[in-house]
């Protein structure tokens, strides 16, 4: 684990984090173009977690924590707690997402060099149910007057289009990936696993350096029911909420089972009916829901697991979806609720992105998938000082190359069961690449 807070040190003692949250208006006379949270962002390392116009955007870096290995989630939480130990906080709004906030993104696999990162921004703007707020996080010597949002917003430079985009095969080309899926099906039929999720990547090169805001706007506009995110070069619009923890209540949205849309409403209604009655997709979905319910059970006094999934329509695909909810067990003595990050760690990886049984599926992925997923399919989101927060699964996503902003890796994965057909899974993976291709177009 490495911690690199931007915290000045005097006499060997780091200055405390100073946090101030106040209400603000969006849009306002000072910032008339701030109706969309994403419009507040500048081009440099923007942070975002936005859905249907609400959420959080942030910029600047007050502290940064990088972690690696199987203990990356626990190490990240310990570092966050240390930063909070001597923090001075004034929160005049007191809503989920106010006060001290950190964004995080973590690798799918324990052994991935991508590890994980927690970024504590310098400025956060949030909005929820018509209420907006501004949070500043600094390491100055004292709490001074609260600056206006107008004084903190980066100079407005509209994002430029990335120009022509070319796509090439990633670690495994499309034809070879058919064999990867076939090997997965063979392993299932041999009794090695019940389900495995296999992913592939695609490389994109843009004509001009990518301004992440361009992609975020296009994702948020088209996929409003998804969580549009940007954390340390990982960007996307995930339809899958790994866990939300808020005042003792937890929610997890599980997606598994997919069919591509045709663009014709009547035809898509028929395809939704096919999906809802597909034994292959229902089997895949049941594995995913069961894995989430089992992972949450030790932390909850009660839970609700839907018997039947609903069909979630997105512009490019239809998904089988279930919202699993629970009530966290009441704290006793000095014990507190587990944080949202701890819950995310307990849930990861779900059957929706790994398979069943988990360890056997992970071993099979390592053996046959042919690539390092990096932070694709890992937890991405935010949490606050009380531990509450929202963590999605980094799906429908891409990773921007740190050294060359013209290069990206796009990812897609498919749940494979005994009845899976490799050609159909390849077609599904292409449909799941559509959001990021649209974002770059």
Automatic annotation (TrEMBL):
Pfam families: Chorismate_bind. The keyword Isomerase applies. InterPro entries: ADC_synthase, Chorismate_C, IsoChor_synthase. GO terms for molecular function: isochorismate synthase activity. It comes from Cellulomonas avistercoris. Belongs to the isochorismate synthase family. SUPFAM superfamilies: ADC synthase. It catalyses: chorismate = isochorismate. Keywords: Isomerase. The keyword Isomerase applies. This is isochorismate synthase. The lineage of its organism: Bacteria, Bacillati, Actinomycetota, Actinomycetes, Micrococcales. It is an enzyme of class 5 (isomerase). Residues 175-432 form the Chorismate-utilising enzyme C-terminal domain. Its EC number is 5.4.4.2. It comes from the Bacteria.
């Amino acid at each position: 684990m490495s911690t690199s807070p931007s915290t000045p040190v005097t006499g060997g003692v780091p200055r405390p984090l100073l946090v101030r949250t106040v209400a603000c208006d969006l849009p306002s006379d000072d910032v008339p173009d701030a109706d969309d949270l994403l419009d507040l962002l500048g081009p440099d390392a923007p942070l975002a977690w936005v859905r249907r116009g609400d959420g959080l955007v942030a910029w600047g870096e007050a502290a940064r924590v990088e972690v690696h290995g199987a203990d990356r989630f626990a190490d990240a939480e310990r570092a966050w707690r240390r930063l909070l130990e001597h923090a001075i906080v004034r929160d005049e709004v007191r809503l989920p997402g106010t006060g001290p906030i950190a964004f995080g993104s973590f690798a799918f696999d324990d052994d991935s060099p991508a590890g994980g990162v927690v970024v504590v921004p310098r400025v956060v703007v949030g909005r929820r149910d018509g209420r907006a707020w501004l949070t500043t996080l600094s390491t100055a010597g004292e709490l001074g007057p609260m600056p206006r949002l107008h004084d903190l917003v980066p100079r407005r430079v509209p994002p430029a289009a990335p120009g022509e985009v070319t796509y090439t095969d990633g670690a495994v080309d499309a034809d070879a990936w058919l064999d990867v899926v076939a090997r997965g099906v063979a392993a299932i039929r041999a009794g090695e696993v019940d389900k495995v999720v296999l992913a592939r990547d695609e490389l994109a090169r843009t004509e001009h350096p990518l301004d992440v805001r361009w992609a975020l706007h296009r994702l948020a506009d088209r996929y409003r029911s998804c969580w549009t995110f940007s954390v340390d070069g990982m960007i996307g619009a995930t339809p899958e909420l790994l866990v939300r923890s808020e005042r003792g209540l937890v929610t997890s949205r599980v997606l598994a089972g997919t069919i591509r849309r045709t663009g014709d409403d009547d035809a898509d209604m028929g395809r939704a009916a096919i999906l809802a009655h597909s034994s292959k997709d229902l089997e895949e979905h049941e594995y995913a829901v069961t894995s989430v319910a089992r992972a949450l059970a030790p932390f909850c006094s009660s839970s609700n697991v839907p018997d039947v999934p609903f069909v979630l329509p997105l512009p490019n695909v239809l998904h089988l979806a279930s919202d699993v909810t629970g009530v966290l067990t009441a704290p006793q003595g000095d014990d507190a609720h587990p944080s949202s990050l701890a819950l995310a760690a307990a849930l990861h990886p779900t059957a929706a992105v790994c398979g069943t049984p988990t360890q056997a599926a992970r071993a099979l992925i390592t053996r046959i998938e042919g690539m390092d997923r990096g932070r694709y399919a890992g937890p991405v989101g935010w949490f606050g000082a009380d531990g509450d927060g929202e963590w999605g699964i980094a799906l429908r996503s891409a990773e921007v190359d740190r050294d060359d902003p013209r290069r990206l890796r796009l990812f897609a994965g498919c749940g494979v069961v005994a009845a899976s057909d490799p050609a159909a899974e390849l077609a599904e993976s292409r449909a799941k690449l559509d959001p990021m291709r649209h974002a770059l177009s």
